[in-house]
Amino acid sequence: MRLLCLLLLTFFAAPAAASPICVAGRLAETGSGKAIDFAEIYLFTGGNVRPARQTLPDEQGGFRLDSVDPGAYTLMIRLIGYDVLTREVALEHSAGTVDLGVLYLTPLENGIAEVEVVAARKQLVYKLDKKVVDASSNIMGGGGSAVDILENTPSVRVDAEGNLSFRGSSGFTVYVDGKPSVFSGSQALEQIPAGHIENIEIITTPSARHDAEGDVGIINVITKKHTQRGLSGTVNLSGSTALSRNVDFLLTRQNEASRWYAGGVWFDKLRKSDFEQQKTTVVDDLTTTSRSKGPRVGDNYNYVAAVVEGGAASEAGIRKGDVILDIDGVKIVEPSTLQEQIAKRRPNDTVKLSVKRDGKVKQFDVTLRNKAGKTELVTKEDVDVVDALGGKFADAGAKLCRELDIKGGVQVVGIKADGILARARVKQGFVITHINDRPVYSLGDMQRMTEKVRSIDGVYPNGRSASYTLVE
Fold first, then answer.
1. C-alpha to C-alpha distance for 472 and 423, rounded to whole angstroms
2. Whether 35 contacts 28, CB under 8 Å
3. Which distant-in-sequence residues (6+ apart) come within 8 Å of 143 by Cβ?
4. Which of 181, 251, 287, 376 could serve as 188's disulfide partner, Cβ 3.0–4.6 Å?
5. What's the pTM value of the predicted model, to 2 decimals?
6. What is the average pLDDT across 85-97?
7. Are 236 and 214 in contact (CB under 8 A)?
């Protein structure tokens, strides 16, 4: 009888065991009612930091948490950009499926004050076909000239006399607002006050719309634009501890359909630089070598030290002590500039020289002559420079020119025992860039020379410059 009662109690107690419960619902956005299909849904038991169940909603926002035991839970739903939703959920033993209905997530609304983003413009911007120099970001943008703005720009060099070279050459074209300048080279850039420049474009690969007369590219100066009508003007003053002085002004008259400019610039450049030079002088069998290294101070003066009696300059009226200002409108800032301009012309050509004498500027027309004092061309047979130098030569390659930062030159690949090179103790590998202060860019330039060799300038492959002067 006791055994039967025990079996009956066991039989009737079995249905009282707990059955799993399912928790379901759907997520939507408050206000719009749009289904939220990506959120994190967690179910926590009291006191636990690890969720008992977790899931993600489907595309319609619906979700299910299966196999949940009866008890008290905390439902947490979170999604970036929405307030976190929490709800207490009590699951009874006989709940089966508990439908929480539609649960709404509220978007976060954070009001912020005005945000001001401040950034400095880059001084140099690289583009596909050019480099753009921002004048307003340059410390010299308020004074000086375009040369001062370009002084610290890659591929541009300014020497102690203020002469600018672009990629190792002075043969570049200057544009102003996309139009060719009436001046050339450094002279054109010195005429433009820095305070009037918006930016400068350095174009290394000119497009078809540019007339690239320069050998190495174009420097295009973009000036500042003024749209307000009426009369306006600017005046800039600048100076330095090296006693350089500069003043420029610009007056602008803006009408309805036209704009008029009147401006001027005056400067007195005094530049300082570090200088290193080796100079060799040969007199008969005596060779003297001197080396110079240290700071150098330069100012811009070009004067006539001597005039050959009966020569072209003498007959034109040029005197000793005259200061040469320009030749055919090209400003002369150093002797090499004058020699380069003369080298472009032939005997019997007439050039116009502007000189300062006793504080007054005078103009002279000079008819060029050859070494013999005549206006006829001198043939190559009169003087063979290549043979007189006594050596073997080859054009300096493009790679070597880039390494030495020169436009061109002729390299010495062999030296004969009885030539000028051997007497001057020039070493093999030397790259000749000038003969008699005239530029030598190729072997053809050397072969076309007819003058007796008086000086040789150039650079060795290690970058050391050298100058050789021959005296008889």
1. 12
2. yes
3. 193, 194, 195, 236, 237, 238, 246, 248
4. 181
5. 0.34
6. 82
7. no
